[in-house]
From TrEMBL, chain A:
InterPro entries: 2Fe-2S-bd_N, 2Fe-2S_ferredoxin-like_sf. Keywords: Oxidoreductase. The keyword Oxidoreductase applies. The lineage of its organism: Bacteria, Bacillati, Actinomycetota, Actinomycetes, Micrococcales. SUPFAM superfamilies: 2Fe-2S ferredoxin-like. Residues 1-17 have a biased composition (Basic and acidic residues). The keyword Oxidoreductase applies. It comes from the Bacteria. Residues 1-20 are annotated as: Disordered. This is Proline dehydrogenase. It comes from Promicromonospora soli. GO terms for molecular function: iron-sulfur cluster binding; oxidoreductase activity.
From TrEMBL, chain B:
InterPro entries: BFD-like_2Fe2S-bd_dom (IPR007419), BFD-like_2Fe2S-bd_dom_sf (IPR041854), FAD/NAD-bd_sf (IPR036188), FAD/NAD-binding_dom (IPR023753), Metab_Enz_Cyan_OpOx_G3PDH (IPR051691), Opine_Oxase_asu/HCN_bsu (IPR017224). It comes from the Bacteria. It comes from Promicromonospora soli. Keywords: Oxidoreductase. Residues 456-476 are annotated as: Disordered. This is Pyridine nucleotide-disulfide oxidoreductase. GO terms for molecular function: oxidoreductase activity. Residues 383-434 form the BFD-like [2Fe-2S]-binding domain. Residues 3-330 form the FAD/NAD(P)-binding domain. Pfam families: Fer2_BFD (PF04324), Pyr_redox_2 (PF07992).
Amino acid sequence: MTSRRMPVDRDPVEPGPDRPLTILVDGEPVAGTVGQTIAGVLLAAGRREWRTTSAGGAPRGVFCGIGVCFDCLVDVNGLRDVRACLRRARDGDVVVRQGEPEVVA
Amino acid sequence: MRHVVVVGAGPAGLAAARAAVEAGARVTLLDAGDGLGGQYWRHLPDTRPAGREHVLHHRWETFRELGDALRAHPAVTVVPSAQVWSLERPGGGVRLNVLVGEPDGVGRDALALEPDALVLATGAHDRTLPFPGWQLPGVYSAGAAQALAKGERVAVGRRVVVAGAGPFLLPVASSLLQTGATVVGVHEAGRIGTLARGWLNRPWELAGAAGKAGELAGYIAELIRHRVPWRPGEAVVAAHGDGQVESVTVARLNERWAPIPGTERQVEADAVCVSHGFTPRLELAVAAGCALTPSRFVMVDDAQATSVPGVWAAGEITGIAGADAALAEGTVAGTAAAGGDTRTATARAAGRAVSRARAFAARIESAHGVRGGWVSWLRDDTVVCRCEETTYGRVREVVELTGSHETRSVKLTSRAGLGPCQARMCGRTLEELLGDTAPPGVDRRPLVVPVRLGDLASLPSSHPHPTASHPTGDQT
Ligand SMILES: Cc1cc2nc3c(=O)[nH]c(=O)nc-3n(C[C@H](O)[C@H](O)[C@H](O)COP(=O)(O)OP(=O)(O)OC[C@H]3O[C@@H](n4cnc5c(N)ncnc54)[C@H](O)[C@@H]3O)c2cc1C
Ligand code: FES
C-alpha cells in the first residue's frame, strides 16, 4: 500500500473518533469515515487511480487535490463527472470508474 | 446599507469580510468549499473535528477569531459550498451567478447577486511544470499533498520526494512528516547562489517579514530533525513506474534550470509532489474586466482597488506573498469596498504590511521564479496537456506545420488546453513554450467551472446561457 490515512490513535492532530461508512467502488466495498472526500476514502485505502483516459487508456487519480485539474472525475450514484477530491463521501455511495469526461470545450 | 460581496474565504477574504462589516457594510461571504479558511487554513471538516488542529497551522487562533466573529455578526451572511460560476456586467454593474450545494451535484440552489461592491479573493493554485512521467498516478502537485494531509490526514505515499521551487515546498514536507510519511528529499530548482542573491540582498527589508521568516526557519529545523536532505539546484526530471510511480530521476540544474548531463540519479519513491510556483485564479477578475499586471496578476492600487470601479481584489490573485500579506490586503480591500476610511490606524498598518509583503513577493520571484532551461528536460513523448494527452512533440509539430506561435491557434490544432480543466494545468506552460504570454491569454474563461445543463435550465430566463462556448454533453 502506498497512500494511507494517519491512524487516529497516532495522529498529533487528534481527529475525532472514526464514524465508519462504506462506499461501493466498481462493485467492491471500500471502508472510510464520515468527513472524508471520495478521493480521501480511496487514497486512504491505498487506491491511487480510478479513471482511464480515452486517448491513451492511462490510469488517473488525484493530481491537484483542490478541484482544478479534473483528473479525479468519477461517476457517483449515476452522475458522471464528479470531482472526487471535492465531494464528501456518504455511506452507500456507488462509485463507478468513468472514461473521458463529457465536459468538452 | 452598502452591500459588499466577498468571493473566497481564505485569509484575504476573511480579513476583507471583517474589515467591510466593521466599516459599516452588509457583507455576504461566498466560498466554494464547505468550510472557511481557504488553502492556508485547510483543516478537517466539522463532521470530523480535530482536538489539536493548531499542530498543522500557523496563526490558527487568528483564523478561529475571524471565523467566529463573522459567523456571529448579524450583518454578515456566510455562504459555504457556494460556487460562483460566472460574472456578468449588466448595465455596467456586476452580477455573480452562484450555485449552492454539493460540488458537481445536480439541483443546486441558484443565486444571483448584484452587490454594491465586490471583493475578489479567489487565491491561487500551484503550478507544476511537465516532465516525463508526470501523468503517472503517484505524481501529485505539492498543493494536493498539502490539501490531503491537512484536510484528510492522508499521506500521498510512504516514501515521498518533494520537488519544484519556492518556500511552499517546506510546509508541504512538514505536513507529510506529520502525516506519517518518510520524505526522501526536498529538491529546490533554484541554485544556492540565486537563492542567496534573492533572499540575502538588502536584509533589512526582511525585518518586517519576521513572522514569515520565523515560520520558514521552523520548517528547516524540522527537516534537519528528521534528517530530510534539502537540495538546492536540483529537480525531478522524470518519474518512472508500471502504472504508478516507483522511482524518479533527480538531476542537478544549471542557473537556467537546464539539467546538467551526467548528474542524473535514480531515487526510489512511491510518490512525488511537485510545484514550481502558483497561478492566480483570475476567471472572475478577467470577466469583470480588471486590468492585469505584466506578470498576470490582478492590478491593484494602494487601496486594493482594481481598474474596474466597484471591484477590489486581495490575496494571491494580486501576487504571491503568503498568508500574512493576504490578511493585510484583505483588511485594506474590505475597508475600501465598504466605503470606509483607509487612513485609519488599522488600515494604515495593514497598508504598511502590504508594502512589506510586496517586497517579500519580489524576493520569492527573484529567488525561485521559473527559468526557461527546464524545457530541455522535456522529450517528444512527454505529455504537456494532461486532459487531452497532447505531447510536447505534437505541440512542436503543430508549430512547424502551421507556422503559428499563437496559443489560441496551437490549442485548436493540437487540442492542448481544450480539455475539462480548460488549460488551468498547461495553459501557462503552453504560452511559455510558444513565447506568447500577453495577458489575458489563457486566463479568459467564460465559465469558472463546468455547469450542468440541468442547472442552467433552472436559472431565471433573463440569464444569457453561455453554452455556446461549451456545447456538448451533460455539462457545458
Ligand atoms: C493546495 C494549497 C495549499 C496551500 N497550503 C499552504 C500552506 O500550508 N502554507 C502556506 O504558507 N501557504 C500555502 N498555500 C499558499 C496559499 O495559497 C496562501 O498562502 C494563502 O492561502 C492565500 O490566501 P488567499 O486568501 O489569497 O487565497 P486562498 O486561501 O486560496 O483562498 C481562496 C478561496 O477562494 C475560493 N474560491 C476561488 N474561486 C471561487 C469561486 N469562483 N467561487 C467561490 N469560491 C471561490 C476557494 O475555494 C478558496 O477557499 C497553499 C496553496 C495551495 C493551492
Ligand atoms: S484532483 Fe484535481 S480536480 Fe480533483
